[in-house]
Design brief:
53 residues, mainly alpha, 2 helices
Length: 53
């Protein structure tokens, strides 16, 4: 008929034990920088005498 169970069944999957284990395969660090763009911008006010602060 029905299957008899004793309490809660054992989990079939092993759950991660720490935050590091959870994030290990799910976090990607991407970094982009536009500092070179700022270095290559033409600023006419800096070309005049007294324009540099």
């Amino acid at each position: 008929m029905g299957q008899k169970t004793r309490g809660r069944p054992e989990p079939k999957l092993k759950l991660p034990q720490s935050v590091g284990e959870v994030l290990q395969e799910h976090v990607v660090l991407e970094s982009e920088s536009i500092d070179r763009m700022y270095l290559n911008v033409y600023v006419p006010q800096l070309q005049r005498i007294g324009g540099v602060v």
